[in-house]
Write a structure and sequence with these properties.
Elements (H helix, E strand, L loop, with lengths): L4 E8 L9 H12 L5 E8 L3 H15 L3 E8 L5 E4 L1 E3 L25 E3 L4 H10 L4 E4 L6 H12 L4 E7 L7 H20 L20 H9 L7
Parallel strand pairs: 1-2, 1-3, 3-8, 4-7
Antiparallel strand pairs: 4-8, 5-6
Helix pairs in contact: 1-5, 2-4, 5-6
């Protein structure tokens, strides 16, 4: 630990055809590259379980007191990255890997129907699109474990959380492209947290739609041999 501000990144555990969930792979990649010397990053794998999700996310906010929590999920059948603005409280009808779903079909009984992140995800997506990266803004996270985890984190973390759906197909599934993109997205979100009024009109220098190696992707490649020992 550097004694700096804490950012927590979560990814999900095995689910259906994903013996190793791509969201957890991405979280481990982010642990390798980090967010700078003044930020401590913690990663947690979250089982695809409603009960375990609530336990782990509550523990994160109660014990680590992070500045920001980033939850990674998988956009099945998509080659795009989605930035989710909103978490929903109700409508959870699908069973988890344990065969369970909440009897109330709610995340937090009596809680608001929806919660939005303090980060303006539309502004973040617009900035990256202007730089040539097709990051998609979304207000519907799917009403399954990703959405459930997001709402629970927004509720307990005073809305200081993000949900990013990573692709399950296409070129961005390559860790040396996805991890630097996620790193830059999260840096942009953290910058917005520092100054919510800061305009996000500056063009970024990195173009993640092309296979060119950037400084950040080089950082990842230098360390990726360690990834499988985590």
């Amino acid at each position: 630990m550097n004694g700096g501000e804490v950012v927590v990144v979560t990814g999900f555990g095995p689910f259906r055809q994903f013996l190793v969930n791509p969201s957890w792979k991405a979280a481990k990649g982010l642990k390798l590259v980090g967010f700078g010397e003044r930020t401590d990053i913690f990663i947690r794998e979250v089982p695809v379980s409603y009960v375990k999700t609530q336990q782990i996310i509550a523990e994160i906010w109660q014990t680590l007191h992070p500045k920001f929590a980033v939850h990674l999920g998988v956009a099945r059948g998509s080659s795009d990255v989605f930035l989710e603005q909103t978490g929903k409280n109700s409508g959870y009808r699908d069973k988890d890997v344990c065969g369970f779903c909440p009897e109330s079909q709610c995340c937090v009984e009596g809680g608001p129907e929806k919660l939005d992140s303090v980060v303006n995800m539309r502004a973040v997506a617009k900035e990256f699109k202007q730089a040539g990266t097709d990051v998609i803004y979304s207000r519907d996270a799917g009403r399954y474990l990703c959405d459930f985890a997001y709402y629970f984190s927004l509720y307990h973390g005073q809305r200081r959380a993000a949900l990013i759906h990573v692709p399950s197909s296409g070129s961005l599934t390559s860790a040396d492209r996805l991890v630097p993109l996620l790193q830059s997205l999260i840096h942009t979100m953290l910058d917005q947290l520092e100054d919510p009024q800061k305009p996000h009109e500056e063009m970024m220098t990195e173009d993640f739609s092309k296979p060119a190696v950037t400084a950040r992707s080089s950082d990842y490649e230098d360390k990726q041999s360690d990834l499988f020992s985590l």
